[in-house]
Design brief:
The chain is 34% helix and 21% strand. It has 299 residues and is of the alpha/beta class.
Amino acid sequence: MRIGIDLGGTKIEGIALGDDGRELARMRVATPSSYEGSVDAIVRLVNDLESRTQMTGTVGVGIPGAMVPRTGVVKNANSTWLIGRPLERDLATRLGRDVRIMNDANCFTVSEATDGAGAGFSVVFGVILGTGVGGGIVIDGKIQTGANLIAGEWGHNQLPWMRDDESPGPSCYCGKRGCIETFLSGPGLERDHAMRGGHALTAREIVSASSSGDRVARATLDRYHDRLARSLASVINVIDPEVIVLGGGLSNMPDLADNVAALLTRYVFSDSVATRVLRNRHGDTSGVRGAAWLWPPVT
């Protein structure tokens, strides 16, 4: 059995998979806003999954950042309480077994490239649109981590083709301004709506208001679609993927993939755009499956 854990900004999800990839159990809890609380929650999830299945499994964990092999600590996490902490070592100590950790967007991309919306394509760019904005690149079935462990981290480039009313952009936890993440994350969408004359609403409420004919909410989503198209066009101009798979909570917005795909020709450096933009196949938490697959099946 393989256990996958997805450590998100608002929730931690765990899954137990059989050797054939069949889901045996799934659980989720709210993410504590502390390092010790997050470690405790992951350990409890693993124990609960093993109790429910009456089996012991390998453990893979997807995190919103990267584990640095040289130092053994986390970097670049938007859940900032993880930064500089030896998460892999601490979890291994608490669980009494080795643990494998990978960036959550990489886990998502592995999942969707293996048997999801990106299956059968040689170059897949996986996108996380949630509490943060992440990305992963799979080429010929292999995840690309890069020399600095940041391959696919499009969320910390500046919003492309920034307009006068967007510049210099909101401050980002990374220390810069105008990062794609500050516009396209859930908090970024909500902040933009409030700043442009809307009431303080959640992302889900903005979508609902737009569907009900609210013009301010509709304009907010139009801006979101255009900014996402600009941002993805800059990715296409660099790696030219065959398919882009959208994940994270915001990927559930109605017709998001189709609306964004229709705008790409405005920005991509090509007379036509063959890259497909697809919604994920395994749900907005597909990454938890990829985390489980960080280990081969137990035999």
